Amino acid sequence: MAAIQAARLLSRRAHVLPGQLHITELFFEVPKNHARPDAGTLKLFGRSVRKNDRPIVPLSAADLAAKEKLPYLVYLEGGPGFGNREPQNHSLTQVALSRGYQLLFLDYRGTGLSTPINADSVLAQGGPQEQADYLKLFRANSIVRDLEAVRLCLTQDFDDDKKAWSIFGQSFGGFVSLTYLSKYPQGLREAFLTGGLAPINRSADDVYAATFQTVVRRNVAYYRKYPEDVASVRRIVSHILSSPGGAIPLPSGGSLTAPLFLTLGIAFGAHGGLDEVHSLVLRLTTDLDASPTEGTFTRASLAAFESQIAFDTHPIYAILHEAIYATKQTGAPPTNWAAYRAGKALLPYAWLANPQGFLQSTPGSEPLHFSGEMVFPLHFSGVAGPELARMREAAELLASTAEWDEDLYDEEQLRRNEVPVYAASYVDDMYVDFGLARETAGLIKGIKVRESNGWYHDAVRSRSEEVFGALFKLRDDVMD
Q1: Which one of the listed residues 229, 429, 433, 458 is annotated catalytic?
Q2: Selected catalytic residue, list 48, 142, 171, 182
Q3: Nearest alpha carbon to residue 136 among 450, 408, 352
Q4: Peptide bond into 386 cis (omega under 30)
Q5: pTM over 0.70
Q6: Is 171 a catalytic residue?
Q7: Domains and their CATH numbers in the chain
Q8: 457 flagged as catalytic
Q9: pLDDT tens digits, 158-210
């Protein structure tokens, strides 16, 4: 693996939250393409966090310097395509600080306050092929090179035994962690993964064949909990289909169509997700009851819907969602909208191809199934917002790409792994299939896994105390 040059620190600004945290805001510069350092640069933004202690006896200069060189734990966010929350609002912060780490929350390239990905920045690269080539630079292989470059920058004057850092990857952050373990294990002290054991040996087709089955089960659970929503969902879908053009304008520029409405099931994979969807269904049906002509959803309700499908404001999530499963292997097929192909072949999801015909051909007592964490061509048609529509040609090219420059994982390296890895894996995970995750765990030498059927994919946030406790028990080896 080619050596990485240290990132260039552009600015550092420290803030103290009284009695709580010492936060330093950091901007770095890294190559846009690490294989071609002369091809331009990108900016990365991060926040380092440590305790803001007020000891009885003031710390000496040496003690203060030592606090700045505590071992790092780096949080790797899920997605792809999302930046980090404020450290004071993050469930990991106090847990990590209490265990002697300092934390780093680094926004991946293209996310948060790092150099952004949006329609303007992508279209500025040139034609559709240049746009697609640019977007390829935002996969996990580039992210881990950024991370390694930042590590070299921040730890250059650390003692040798503190230069390696720990990583904590949630969801897609776990995928990034496995790429890091594959390519730069020398930079890692340990790795924690939650809901992030990526399906290393599997194609996008395999992934969606598995995850659709879990989504079907979550739909069954939804309608078992809210049986009245069988009629309510059909009523909403029928109303949308009967609107002019089969669409209702959304406040931010997209259109509420029947298929877009039925993508709300993405929430089913989180704790409280069934209730979240029911609340919106109830809100929309209440609008219809209140409208004299049964023809109006309120702006507030439409805005609430938009907040559930915010791909237009996080375009990497949509445009690279299937690319995270793409492989360099010669002869491997392109992803080619794998989720769409897998879904429309299943009877409950025939609405993907013909929503009007599906509604008319099914009995009124039959529930309409929501999809899950899947991205379809319809998201780039303009209904999900104008940003994605402007990148449609680049998205089509990425979907048709048969060969990629680099594989994201090195199986042989993972089989001889020497970095301690601690993972939480969820039996009922709707986003990262449990069976495929177990296959991956079997590849990684020395991994310790806590498997649970009591947590969903977002447990690191909604059940944080339980998850952190389980992972640190694995780390501390309290079980014989």
Answers
A1: 429
A2: 171
A3: 408
A4: no
A5: yes
A6: yes
A7: 8-198+408-476 (3.40.50.1820), 204-400 (no CATH)
A8: yes
A9: 999 999 999 999 999 999 999 999 999 999 999 999 999 999 989 999 999 99
